[in-house]
Amino acid sequence: MKAAGLYKHLPIDQKESLIDQETDIPAPGERDLLVKMKAVSVNPVDTKLRSKGEEEENLKILGWDAAGIVEKTGAAVTGFKPGDEVYYSGSVSRQGTNSEYHLVDERIAAEKPKNLSFEEAAAMPLTSLTAWEGLFERLGISECPEDNDGKAILLIGAAGGVGSIALQLAKRAGLKVVGTASREETEQWARKNGADDIITHYEPFKKQLEEIGVKNLDYIFCLNSTDQHWEAMIEAIAPQGKICSIVETKEPQDISLLQQKSVTFVMEFMFTKALFGTEDMESQGEILRKMAHLFEKGELHSTLTETIRPFNAESLKKAHQKLESGKTIGKIVVSGFGE
């Protein structure tokens, strides 16, 4: 099968940062689905893992978002059959989705939303799981709008991949939704996806929130530079409020600043459940099934903004370059397998 991967971890402008190579089609394990890829998307984790690490002995295949068709199933698979259209985000501990065929544990996959194309569906798994777990599991927000009457959330980096779907979910949950954006086009995109108000992340949050009438900020979902926003988040959050971040820190931060307000701070990493085989690992398949239902009902929409064809290393390089520019809106998908 055709795959795009790397042996050397390099800047994206280097010739060998991503290369095309023929590899064997993998055989499914007991709980695995062998999926024929139709579309994949890129995420910040792809660029981070591409640029850092030791030289690889074997081809390292990146990519975790995927939509495709089940080709074969493992002996213990019960939830899927060949021919099923699926979408998912794989495990960071296994080979990625940037290949014509891919193996995924059935517990973290779900049937593709029927009303979405493969490209529209491939844009959604990683960001949807991150947003859902961050909002409803880590921050403990209720899915019931009646429970959130009068409550507000700030999403830092609202126009990115996770922000674009987190806005929709937060709005659907009945929260007052404030997002950060720094350009006219990102502000328009954030408002389209559910932001009630927009502030800039280049100025302190608290004063800006007060100016738009948000005096009690219950939740913050940090999707951009935890280091940069650490003190501003703590200043803005309400006493006994909750902050969740998906971005690792590069410098030590003073967690004692959380104490006076009794603020909860928690990290979200979408790959945790599959990486450690947690008891609730199959909840990711359940979340994707819930999301598929909401897409099909029209309560949520795909955040796909660009498709690059055909599938090959050069197309993936273009996607990585765009993502690393820091100016992307929504999600970028690579499609056109076999073209």
TrEMBL record:
Residues 17-334 form the Enoyl reductase (ER) domain. Signal peptide: none annotated. Its main location: cytoplasm. GO terms for cellular component: cytoplasm. Coiled coil: none annotated. It is found in: Cytoplasm. InterPro entries: ADH-like_N (IPR013154), ADH_Zn_typ-1 (IPR014182), ER (IPR020843), GroES-like_sf (IPR011032), NAD(P)-bd_dom_sf (IPR036291), Quin_OxRdtase/zeta-crystal_CS (IPR002364), Zinc-ADH_QOR/CCCR (IPR051603). Pfam families: ADH_N, ADH_zinc_N_2. NCBIfam families: adh_fam_1. Belongs to the zinc-containing alcohol dehydrogenase family. Quinone oxidoreductase subfamily. This is Zinc-type alcohol dehydrogenase-like protein. The lineage of its organism: Bacteria, Bacillati, Bacillota, Bacilli, Bacillales.
